[in-house]
DNA sequence: TTTTTATGACTACGGTTGTAAACTATAAAA
DNA sequence: TTTTATAGTTTACAACCGTAGTCATAAAAA
């Protein structure tokens, strides 16, 4: 599991800060009002935990603090993706991508980039993906 | 968040049971010996929790119990994927798929199926994906 | 300067998770 | 039938999580 572990509730906070920074706790709470019925205290607790985890930097500005992200959104998303892929057999990844594709709306340009990438990968793709699971954790023949 | 919440440690157990069932706690533990240094008691605790969560069925067979999965692996993986996608802006999904593709080995046949699916999606794909985020949680212009 | 107020820090509390020892019931072996 | 090994259950406990009240302090207002 990754070190930079962000819980779902913390993730809500991070998304706000990734979008706008520097930002104060009050502003964060105001933005999240629409989505979560959190008391200001809750927002503060989550911010505090994120600071302790090294996800946010603080800078005192007069009476309030300004928060900034110390890890990028892309970085964090990629780690989530890694965690997801780690829990399934390598041979199932292709099928899973298909599932995602099916249930998502993807822009024309993204689809084009994906098509290009797939074309490129076809050249070196194996007939069968090698499974690296612990024997007994997938149905591949070892 | 989904009801069928499976923790990482529980996931290890489920993968064994999805692969082989019915199966006993001892057999599960033996299989996981290679990967996790769990005491038999740990395996039993996790099995117990999975039963309580309604993930496994039990059937007494002589002195031991046999476990069977009550949810399929695909179902569970799909829920994990949903949870992952739910925490990012819809406009970022394409890019994330690209990331997954880049870092994974995909078989020729899977790539082909993906290519076909992408071709099909291109026909109805929008120029720009509509963002449904809470304002302030992504950089899209609302 | 004193009072008000807003802000982060501390504390709390029930739930979940990872990890496991101790307990109990019971089938199988002696 | 008595013993024993084994299977599940109960209890444990620290860390993490969601949610939030309270407190101390410092800035702003009076």
Verbal overview:
The structure is a homodimer of 142-residue chains. The model of chain A has no long low-confidence stretch (mean pLDDT 94). Chain A has a domain at 8-69: Winged helix-like DNA-binding domain superfamily/Winged helix DNA-binding domain (Arc Repressor Mutant, subunit A), CATH 1.10.10. A two-stranded antiparallel sheet of chain A has the order 1-2. In chain A, helix 1 packs across helix 3 and helix 2 packs across helix 3. Chain A is 53% helix and 8% strand. Chain A is mainly α and 142 residues long. Chain A is elongated, with a radius of gyration of 20 Å. Chain B binds a DNA duplex (30 and 30 nucleotides) through helix 1 and helix 3. Chains A, B: This is Copper transport repressor, CopY/TcrY family. Chains A, B: GO terms for molecular function: DNA binding. Chains A, B: InterPro entries: BlaI_family, Cu_transp_CopY/TcrY, WH-like_DNA-bd_sf, WH_DNA-bd_sf. Chains A, B: Keywords: DNA-binding, Transcription, Transcription regulation.
